[in-house]
TrEMBL record:
Residues 20-235 form the Histidine kinase domain. The chain holds residues 286 to 523 of 523 of the full protein. This is histidine kinase.
Length: 238
């Protein structure tokens, strides 16, 4: 009975995700349809070009939305035992180029070495989303990206696990932003943002019976954001 309940909860989550994603994809697709119609009925080459360029922008948006949600999900068939360090390093290697081209320094402090049982592809996606956001927040002035891991205990369940921290010295978040952070499609990045990163991340962490928390630090002239991901050691038991 408990298993059936979990299955139906999962389906409910999937249903909610699917319907908001479908909604969000539908708008740019409708725009593309209209733009193609206009292009087809125009004789002015420069106007046609303009319509096609606008359509391209809309299609790129659709691409960003689907890759954001599906990128790592494909490989997440079996739970694996991985350490926080393995996760952090494999995600960092994806961002090597972007970090090399920026004024961002990396500070690592790895204190948890026990492996976590988890859908490692999904957890990589979570850390990837957090690092990507941190780099976005430091894109104009550079700064420091902090990656930490330590053994921790869930104060509610007493369960032991690992907390991975991704922190930055970027723009930080206003109280208004913090309140909406985990809402689907909430973004302050006008063109490049999908507003799906943190929402998907929270769903993934919740399904691992973990916790994802955000703080903004703006005291004493120090700006930035702190994201903590707690994962129990046996995150995946089913
Ligand atoms: P996206 O990155 O596509 O906007 P997210 O769900 O990943 O979507 O993030 C939602 C919003 O949360 C961002 O647009 C930004 O305003 C805010 N945010 C997330 N991480 C950070 C961070 N490290 N520093 C400042 N703001 C952040």
């Amino acid at each position: 009975a408990e298993l059936a309940l979990i299955q139906s909860e999962k389906l409910a989550v999937l249903g909610r995700m699917a319907s908001s994603i479908a909604h969000e994809i539908n708008n740019p697709l409708e725009a593309v349809t209209n733009l193609l119609y206009l292009a087809r009925h125009s004789n002015d080459v420069s106007v046609v070009k303009e319509y096609l360029e606008l359509a391209e922008v809309q299609l790129r948006r659709v691409g960003a939305i689907t890759s954001q949600t599906l990128r790592f999900h494909k490989q997440a068939t079996n739970p694996q035992a991985v350490t926080a360090e393995q996760i952090i390093e494999s995600v960092l290697s994806i961002y090597q180029g972007r970090i090399a081209n920026s004024a961002v320094l990396i500070s690592r402090r790895i204190r948890a070495h026990e492996p976590i049982q988890c859908f490692d592809g999904e957890i990589r996606q979570v850390i990837s989303n957090l690092i990507s956001n941190a780099l976005d927040a430091m894109s104009t002035h550079g700064g420091c990206l902090y990656l930490r891991s330590r053994v921790a205990t869930n104060w509610r369940t007493g369960e032991r696990g690992v907390t991975i921290t991704v922190a930055d010295t970027g723009t930080g978040m206003s109280a208004e932003t913090r309140a909406k952070l985990f809402n689907p499609f909430f973004t302050t990045k006008s063109i490049t943002g999908t507003g799906l990163g943190l929402w998907v991340s929270k769903e993934i962490v919740d399904r691992h019976r973990g916790a994802l928390r955000a703080r903004s630090s703006q005291s004493g002239g120090y700006h930035g954001a702190v994201f903590n991901v707690f994962l129990p050691f046996d995150a995946v038991v089913r």
